[in-house]
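Researcher: Please predict.
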Amino acid sequence: MAQAKAGDKVNVHYTGRLTDGTVFDSSAGRETLEFELGTGMVIKGFDDGIAGMIIGEKKTVHIPAEEAYGPVNPDYLAVFPKAEIPADIPYEVGMQLNMHQDGSGQVMPVTVTEVTETTITLDANHPLAGKDLIFDIELVAIG
């Protein structure tokens, strides 16, 4: 049987969870995830975990944070005075907002991580940064 290798288009079903068992994403009930193996279209640990699999094979892959979304970068945390936040923007801890980057016109998703009487802290790290991930993967097709 053919084994999945770099350059192959693969289709997989997967469930991603944190080490505490919390499921953060799954293809269950949806179409398979299709991508080209070895091209950086998915996180490195996921890509590496599929290499060598055969169609129909199921496996569980443990991916350390460094091979997933990397460590939490403290440079991506910003504290703003509440007075600088427009009054029409609601916010509370855990809420996701979109912040416009100066001059570039690009929008960056941020998460509200702390609210005090005078400040609001925004985190632009990926929500899964700093977390080890576990994926249950089934290789459905190699195309």
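Model: Residues 44-50 form the longest helix (7 residues).
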